[in-house]
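My main concern about presentation is that the manuscript never shows what a single data entry looks like. For the editor and my fellow referees, an illustration may be useful. For illustration, here is how one protein appears when written out as sequence plus structure tokens:

***
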Amino acid sequence: MKSNFYQVGGTLGSQHPTYVEREADESLYQGLKDGEFCYVLNPRQMGKSSLADRTMQRLKNEDYACAFIDLTNDIGIAATADEWYYSLADSINRKFKIHNALSNWWDEYPNLSALGRFREFIETIILKEIDKKIVIFIDEINNVRCQLFSLDDFFAFIRSCYNSRINQPQYQRLTFAIFGVATPRDLIQDSNQTPFNIGTEIELRGFQLEKVKPLIQGLKEKANNPQAVMEQILYWTGGQPFLTQKLCKLVTQIDRIIAAGSEKKQIENLVQSKIIDNWQQQDNPEHLRTIEQKIFQETPLSKSLLILYEEILESGEVKFSGSQQEIVLMVSGLVVKQKDVIKPYNLIYQLVFNLQWVKQRLTELRPYSDQLLAWQHSDFQDNLCLLQGSELEKALIWSSGQNEQTLDELDLEFLSASQAWDKKQRNKKIIKFSSLGFLAGLVTFSLITYAHNWYKNYNFQYCSVLEKVGDTCFRNVFTSGEAKLFLSRPNHYLDRGIEKFKEKEYEDAINLLERAIISAPKDPVPQIFYNNAQARRRSDKINKERGINNPLLEIVLGKEVPYKFAAVIPADSNEGIAIEILKGVADAQTAFNKKGGKNDRLLEIVLVNDGDEPESAQRIAKDIASDGDILAVIGHYSSDTTGKSLEEYDRAILPMVSPTSVSSKVDEKRQELTHKVFFRTVPSDRQIETLAKYIKDSLKLDTAVVFYEKASEFYSQSGREVFIREYEKIGGKVDKNGDGVIDIRDDESQQNFNDENVRLDSLALNAEEKLKKILNQKKVKAIIVIPSVKTASVAINLAKENNKQLPLFGVGGTSYNPDIIEQGGDILEGITVHIPSFNKNSKYSKDAEERWKGPITYRTAGAYDATQALIRVC
């Protein structure tokens, strides 16, 4: 018998020779025929999908209309509830092949909620167009708990379908079968909602000896007594389907016949050598690692889970009480409930996850797990659960030595919140943002924000693996998912997803990146890589169907590839700003791909780091322009990098849309070039007129000094020129050759520098001394700071020396920098910053705030608009 007789992992087709019928087969089949709502909720790799497929085929043979929806592969992670419900409706519609223009139909009901439209879809399309009995199979139901919004109403809808049978007879033809790794009480978590208490639970047990005849068939050529071999296999696996198939397959791969009477020893040696020894390396396809990961995904519960499992190992079994820890262990597959006790599922698990493993894992766990669990249970509101003083210090020391697998986003939030609380308790003044409500685009800073993430500052101290640009080290990153973008953000699943993406194993990459999204819900990079993996998988499938499987055919017939845009961001130099931009890009890409893309092609986003270095940006633009697959560019961030790169994109006729570059000098350069490929989704710096009028007319400040950076040709110089022009136009006076003339510290200090303002690059070392001269003269009434990205931190020095003597104004997004705000702290209190405005009440803004768990900035909104604009013309 060939070893491929057995299938280890994946769904067994309805006619597969090793499919083992269990009691659940008949229970599910009969329950659905009786119109019951059925659910099969079990650990992974127990055969749920195979059971669903086989049952669906049986019902189809009896003229039932059936659709199978995999929530992970068919829907994945959605940005909003509306997107999730549309994707579900679209998947059902495509499986039943009913409506040809569902997106248009969906948009005809703008006044209905997402759930309301889904209900209308079921009632007016599915139940109207299909006159048979209908069963909708929904697999991977645990995916609903991965979304960043509540889907409790979805389960309430399923209940309402059941209740509607009384008054609306057509609902008697509709039923659902739900499969997943969850428990019934997981399905509706809101205590105000009625629990999910309808339908029939189908219990899916392991294999029993009297039912495994199909598996024994494959052992006949390898054993004198295949029945005895199977008994030993079940002794080790406890009937766990995945392990049973795997061990059967291992038997067929040995090079000798198992003699009668030697079954026990032979199978024991096989289990020890091929499964238990070095199990992390031999666990392929992955099974044991999945169980281990489930334990440590439950971050706050991990300690109590290990303690309970330790008790089960030592006692052999414990009485079942229904606790959350017991349920999680059962869902992991590590233990099984038998009558009123829970015990280890099988002997293999006991030997792999033994007492030594438990003790080692307990020592690795976070020392603050109890406080973290209490904080989470308080909905992150109870500050008394946070760490302070020596406890916090110990936790930070411990965390600094952990690897990416140990820490997740919840750890980082807890430690950051603890630092902020500890600082407040030590009477450090915490001040919040406030805004000038009467003037759009002006934000008054009275800072600070949050305490530093303890590991956040990642400094490139060596250039051995980087490129040196000027005085800095630059990391050349050009990635769709093959390499990590932010080195300072640990995410175990992201790292593993990147490995699979690099190997072009996109299915595995998708599964891992989906977990990465859950681990870091505020990081847009896992979402973009996830979308990219789906786009690559779609294109690979199309190429396979077209028979394009070698380079020659790719040349002759043309290889199908996703639509591809490059997003150029300052990943290393301004991580916080890069994240703000990528959130908008991710949202637009997700929305496009969820709707099926265009012409059966999805959108791929290539992430490119330019380090906010103009020299690097120009070279990077050449690389992007030479990539024939890239259709457009989102970026660059600063006006200086945008201006420097513009010629390369114009030469390649490659459209670029910047969500942040405001310089009118970039507009002037655009006009000089042939193809005029530059566009923006943010107002130009001519909007500084608003600030000039506010200072002169509203605040009655008629004399100002301007600090700027001469080397910043496109941004700082441009902003200076616009401000002076507009300010003087309405009667303001910029100090020129008198009180505001400052000696320049470098070589230019010997020149007759007769500029009308003070250069920031000359202030970097002695800002206090130079500003002091201005303050002592007492003629200037306002200080204007227009820094470039590189000199933005000088604003802190200026604010410190100014000490609120004169009103201080920052111009543009470089002053509105989360890192600068955090570093400056309450020194920056009172600075007013002019930034682009955006509609915070738009549908996108509200959806994005829900998706990213907090307010968004103009950079996110602008990046979303930029990506959407390019999508429309692709």
